[in-house]
Amino acid sequence: MPTPVREITGIDPAALPDELLQSTEPVVVRGLVRHWPAVQAALASGAAVSQLLRRCWRDATVNAWIGAPEIEGRFFYDAQFSGFNFHAERLPLGSVLDALARHHADPRPPSLYVGSTTIDTCLPGFRDDNDLGFGKLQPLMSLWLGNRTRIAAHQDLPANLACVVAGRRRFTLFEPGEVGNLYIGPLDFTPAGQPVSLVDITAPDLDRFPRYADAARRARGAELAPGDAILIPSLWWHHVEATTPFNALVNYWWRDTPEHMDAPVAALLHTILCVRELPPEQRRAWQQLFEHYVFAADASTAAHIPEHARGVLKPLDAEASRRLRAQLLQKLNR
């Protein structure tokens, strides 16, 4: 069994503390959003929370994933890795809620999932009575909705505060350094934009994925009920399982880096293009350069250069980032 995620209590929902928002380890906050009207409706019945969502909905369509009963909620690749075991449709939110209600009692329902739908676009007015206090942060608030589903372990760049509104969710988390033990799939062909683990952690095939046993021994776990929340730090791998016939979750995403910074995955892909196929000695030399100029960089890295001449070795502001991006685009378009 995974090691339980650390829990804290006594948090003021109107003023979330830095202890939570800046945590570099996962944290569970029991009952953080239990006071939300949406959670109270969910505790009454699935129909009640569905009605609340319908009242907030303003005819926007959502991206729904639909899979056959045979996938048992595990949205993943097809057997040939040429596509996926589900299809996506743009549907009115009301149609998704209708389908969830229609199949609520089915022993083997089709798998239904709506992920990462911006609240302000789809449910304007929802956060008037269902929100948290983030101070100066302005996180993106999103809705996740479905029946029994399993989302493969993946990582996100932003920090994530996930709040269960309806149903139950089981989270299994792994530190970023477990990447080699999680058998990550393709970087550029993914179900939802993020590379995912190929291991089905509910029934791991240790003959095919033997190193996963090491990751499993160090995994963290938490099961959340309506009103509970979990802080998932940036780049922690997380597998999410919804275990009841009707599940709704709201999450907040934010980055603690300047807006002018590009996504680091772009650097990873560019490094694969430029460095990976070099001879071993050259790769080691570039590894040392990356360590010096990026991973171990500090005030001493360019201290020997006159300040006005340090160029990209100076801290990057928005204008310097634009100039550097233009130089990179020129080189890429050679």
TrEMBL record:
Pfam families: Cupin_8. PROSITE patterns: JMJC. InterPro entries: Cupin_8, JmjC_dom, RmlC-like_jellyroll. It comes from the Bacteria. Residues 80-269 form the JmjC domain. This is Cupin-like domain-containing protein. It comes from Pseudaquabacterium terrae.
